DNA sequence: ACGCTCGCATCAGGTGGGAAACGG
DNA sequence: CCGTTTCCCACCTGATGCGAGCGT
């Protein structure tokens, strides 16, 4: 059930967006380039949803004006608009057996309606939204989106994700990052994220729990949309790499003049649901915002969060500290993290977790399910992508991408029903319980944790910039290209790199098919990783608050192992690199820090 | 001489903690 | 009074510029 959440299919095909807009920082027109990914998709019969969505209201200030199709469920429509019944939720009414229960790449569930509110009774039973966009020519275009860092999102979601909002704007963490497939290669799209109220309540953190406290302030004004700076761009472009919104900032400053392009204005203590939109545009309609372009929208319930000006739940705080590189200075020392009661999954090794995350290659290229973290590591890319872009998707017995899908459970631990009190808003992860023991590495592997280090790129932007160095113009343009005017000529990233299709597609295919990972390397990798840890770890005590929720130990072993798995998987990734030079770099890297 | 790579230093910006300020 | 917001701090990452070293 939960497995379907990682992948969502559009639920709204033809959507009139009130604030249809073009990015001022548009990318350029790009000749149709070979897509790295074929138009993967599933039969329309499985994802069909009403192609004709109701026209949105003209209330541009209302997030819900973007929501043409109510079954999106998780978005709360302020009473003022009253377009969306609060009882809507995502129902799991369809299941794709062909895709298999593979977690990240699990089949999408068809969107359905059923009693209950998604936001009020989040069961996680049918988060994936499916639908089919009907093209003008009558042929259905199927697009589906993967939430790249879904495992990390799930970690946060278990504790009710909180996002800091500040006057100057605070980046989201985890940030939104997607992979999409199924777009028209040549069609142009604007990609943007909208953050809408997820429910009608005002929330308060009380007694270690998030509880509702009155009604939400529906009068919220201000920008709720963040347009991806590379918009507009071709479907080929969007499908080529992760679509990252790492620069998206959240603010509570309604007076900010940056809000339109860079910030989304939210209200503290309100629950929000980010939504991804792909708006197909045509050259002729670039400046015509009154046209009615096709818009495909996606919702990932696990990205729901409560906006706060200060963290309330210390578990969330710890998760942020453990996973956000910019908060590395707040990380506790290794020993305490493994001896204190709260060394649960939320606080895996500051070292291994971060390194593991860093070492994770772009989810785009393979280990997405394994790599539960946000980051794409430029270190990894620098050292491995150049020698073998086809990454080790195939690498490891540790990969969650096992065909049986059990590995997915690695990244999802049991709900802590008693801890946050917001269980009703959490994904029901129980289906993932019980399989840890059979699929996880020995705890001892913890020793393989790697010291988090510096100089690593966490955000997709950087990785790509590094890839630029390694892959040449194809990747280089990703970063070096400056936001250009709409439709400005842009090099075709794939045109000059015919190998892309050869190397990347197979990977993607592997993802889809649940390509297995070789296990041989896993037996050897630990030693090197252990060495790393021993050499690099330096205990540092930092202040740390204790969670009001108390230790959540039930799943800690799982997460710990999970982290380790990532580390090991990363190692496998390294080993996969055919270049001995790359390996040398790898080892020197770890021994030097 | 020129171009390239590498390492270092610097700076901008992101992070959560904690105390003070604010407001109902 | 209490909950929330704001501000400042130390710490960290990442981008950039510069110079040294090396090869052509």
Automatic annotation (TrEMBL):
InterPro entries: p53-like_TF_DNA-bd_sf, T-box_assoc, T-box_DNA-bd, T-box_sf, TF_T-box, TF_T-box_CS. GO terms for biological process: CD8-positive, alpha-beta T cell differentiation involved in immune response; endodermal cell fate specification; mesoderm formation; positive regulation of DNA-templated transcription. Its main location: nucleus. It is found in: Nucleus. GO terms for cellular component: chromatin; nucleus. GO terms for molecular function: DNA-binding transcription factor activity, RNA polymerase II-specific; RNA polymerase II cis-regulatory region sequence-specific DNA binding. Residues 147-332 form the T-box domain. Keywords: DNA-binding, Nucleus, Transcription, Transcription regulation. Residues 1-60, 482-503 are annotated as: Disordered. Pfam families: T-box (PF00907), T-box_assoc (PF16176). It comes from the Eukaryota. This is Eomesodermin homolog b. It comes from Hippocampus comes.
């Amino acid at each position: 059930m939960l497995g379907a959440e990682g992948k969502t299919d559009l639920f709204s095909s033809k959507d009139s967006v009130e604030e249809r807009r073009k990015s001022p920082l548009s990318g350029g027109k790009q000749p149709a380039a070979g897509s790295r990914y074929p138009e993967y998709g599933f039969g329309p019969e499985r994802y069909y949803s009403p192609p004709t969505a109701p026209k949105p209201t003209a209330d541009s200030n209302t997030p819900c004006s973007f929501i043409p199709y109510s079954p999106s469920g998780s978005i709360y429509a302020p009473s003022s608009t009253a377009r969306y019944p609060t009882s809507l939720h995502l129902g799991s009414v369809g299941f794709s057996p062909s895709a298999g229960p593979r977690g990240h790449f699990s089949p999408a569930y068809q969107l359905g309606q059923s009693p209950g509110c998604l936001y009020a009774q989040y069961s996680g039973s049918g988060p994936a939204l499916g639908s089919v966009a009907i093209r003008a020519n009558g042929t259905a275009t199927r697009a589906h989106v993967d939430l790249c860092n879904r495992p990390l999102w799930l970690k946060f979601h278990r504790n009710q994700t909180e996002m800091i909002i500040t006057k100057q704007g605070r980046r989201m963490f985890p940030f939104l990052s997607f992979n999409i497939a199924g777009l028209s290669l040549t069609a142009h799209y604007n990609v943007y994220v909208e953050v809408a109220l997820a429910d009608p309540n005002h929330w308060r953190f009380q007694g270690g729990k998030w509880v509702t406290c009155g009604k939400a302030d529906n009068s919220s004004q201000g920008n709720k949309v963040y347009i991806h700076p590379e918009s507009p761009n071709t479907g080929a472009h969007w499908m080529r790499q992760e679509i990252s919104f790492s620069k998206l900032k959240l603010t509570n400053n309604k007076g900010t003049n940056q809000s339109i392009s860079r910030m989304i204005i939210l209200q503290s203590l309100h629950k929000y649901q980010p939504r991804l939109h792909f708006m197909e545009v045509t050259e002729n309609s670039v400046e015509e915002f009154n046209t009615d372009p096709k818009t495909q929208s996606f919702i990932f319930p696990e990205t729901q969060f409560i906006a706060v000006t200060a963290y309330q739940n210390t578990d969330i705080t710890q998760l942020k500290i453990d996973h956000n590189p910019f908060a590395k200075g707040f990380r506790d020392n290794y020993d305490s993290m493994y001896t204190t009661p709260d060394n649960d999954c939320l606080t895996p090794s500051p070292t291994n977790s971060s390194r593991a995350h860093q070492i994770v290659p772009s989810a785009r290229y393979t280990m997405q399910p394994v790599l539960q973290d946000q980051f794409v590591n430029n270190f990894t890319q620098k050292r491995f992508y150049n020698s073998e872009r086809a990454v080790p998707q195939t690498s490891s017995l540790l990969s969650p991408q096992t065909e049986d899908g059990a590995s997915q459970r690695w990244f999802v631990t049991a709900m802590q029903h008693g801890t946050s009190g917001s269980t009703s808003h959490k994904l029901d992860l129980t289906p993932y319980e019980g399989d840890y023991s059979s699929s996880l590495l020995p705890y001892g592997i913890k020793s393989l944790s790697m010291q988090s280090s510096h100089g690593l790129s966490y955000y997709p932007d950087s990785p790509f910039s590094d890839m630029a160095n390694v892959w040449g113009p194809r990747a280089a343009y990703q970063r070096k290209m400056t936001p250009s005017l709409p439709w400005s000529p842009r090099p075709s990233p794939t045109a000059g790199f015919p190998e892309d299709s050869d190397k990347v597609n197979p990977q993607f295919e592997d993802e889809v098919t649940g390509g297995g990972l070789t296990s041989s390397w896993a037996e050897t990798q630990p030693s090197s990783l252990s060495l790393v840890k021993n050499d690099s770890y330096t205990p540092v005590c930092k202040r740390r608050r204790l969670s009001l929720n108390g230790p959540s130990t039930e799943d800690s072993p799982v997460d710990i192992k999970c982290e380790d798995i990532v580390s090991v998987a990363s190692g496998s990734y390294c080993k996969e690199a055919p270049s001995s030079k790359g390996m040398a770099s790898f080892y020197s890297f770890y021994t030097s820090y």
